[in-house]
Amino acid sequence: MPAATKNIYKKLIKLSFSAMLILCLTACSFSGLLGAKSEVEKLSKTDFVLDTAATVTLYGCGDEQLLERCFELCRQYELIFSRTDERSELYELNAAGSMAVSDELLELITLSRDYAELSGGAFDFTLGGVSVLYGFSSDSPRAPSGGELAAVMEHVGWEKVRIDGNVVTLSDPGAVLDLGAIAKGWIADRVAELLLENGVDSAIINLGGNVLCLGSRPDGENFVVGLQYPFKDMSQTIADIRVSDMSVVTSGVYQRCFEQDGVFYHHILDPGTGLPCGNGLLAVSVVSPRSADCDALSTACFVLGLDDGLELVDSLDGVYAVFVTEDYKLHYSDGFQDALF
Ligand code: AMP
Ligand code: MG
């Protein structure tokens, strides 16, 4: 890549990093604005991990060392679940086609398979080859040709993944697993466990907008989480919700996207065609106690679309969702407004 292009991308990465910082700071200032007692000590750290800016904030408990351990844990899991890092266990599995995997990878693949089944295949963690073609996480995303897409789509299908004990086998060696739609949520749950084990009862874990609120604010009130207004500055919210011991995860077209020849492309893919889902949705936010569930369901519901997505969420206990359509209208699942406003 020419040096000038490299520099532009470096700047872009820095810009998106600072944009994420603004979001994190905004999330904190909401809790400040709404009455967190100023005398409560707040410890916060932001770092670039899991291909995004992550922030962990502890209220009135824990120390710098514990904060650092949260980020170490994220890095440790990144080395298991990353599709792109050649040192990762998932990379090894994708290359080998069959191998005995760690308990962590087994758990996440099993959960992914459960969500693939629950969503009738809308959540499909074998779309890795398609993601590679678009290069959403690369320096130069581009739309593949119809022929290129057809060639990789032959290897997509969550039923190609077999689990036998701790051995995972891709019955189609061309299949490429991608856990990007669920891993951040699962990792947020592990960070929350680490904090709980260490006596923390009030914290916000924000892995690039994948938010988990541990406990409630130090003054006993709910945390306030702002849902980003699609395409607007990250500090602008389309709704503010109130949560304790809950995770809030959004899948949105604006999170990873590009334009080519006047056509808008985004990273949430239709497993039937390999094309970005074009179903009139801009974003889906899911709220539930477990961040892994929120993460998987936000992606699944986006792919299912407004009607089927709402039906799925309404069939699940303790799960809420809000869908944003292209006209910027909000559509809530049953009980959302009573529980979260
Ligand atoms: P999220 O932001 O959690 O909705 O996850 C989106 C990411 O998951 C994308 O960047 C892809 O890596 C991957 N992905 C895209 N479409 C799907 C899908 N239909 N099912 C599962 N993972 C997907
Ligand atoms: Mg997701």
Give a short summary of the structure.
By secondary structure, the chain is an alpha+beta fold. It has ten helices and 15 strands.
Query: C-alpha Rg, in Å?
Result: 20 Å
What is the CATH architecture term of the domain at 3-64 and 203-262 and 270-340?
A: Roll
The quaternary organization reads as: single chain
Using the alpha-carbon principal axes, give the shape. Answer: globular
CATH superfamily of the domain at 3-64 and 203-262 and 270-340: ApbE-like domains
Total of DSSP H or I helical runs spanning 4+ residues: 10
Please identify the top-level CATH class of the domain at 3-64 and 203-262 and 270-340. Answer: Alpha Beta
Question: Distance N terminus to C terminus?
Answer: 49 Å
- Mind describing the biggest β-sheet? 8 strands, antiparallel
Ligand roster: adenosine monophosphate, magnesium ion
Strand coverage percent = 15-25%
- What is the CATH T-level topology of the domain at 3-64 and 203-262 and 270-340? T-fold
Extract low-pLDDT stretches: 1-37
Structural class: alpha+beta
Description:
The chain is an alpha+beta fold. The protein has a domain at 3-64 and 203-262 and 270-340: ApbE-like domains (T-fold), CATH 3.10.520. 38% of the residues lie in helices and 25% in strands. A hairpin with a 2-residue loop joins strand 1 and strand 2 (52-59). The model is unreliable at 1-37 (pLDDT under 50). Residues 123-125, 127, 131, 136, 178, 180-181, 251, 255-256, 267-269, 271, 295, 298-299, 303 line the site of adenosine monophosphate (AMP).
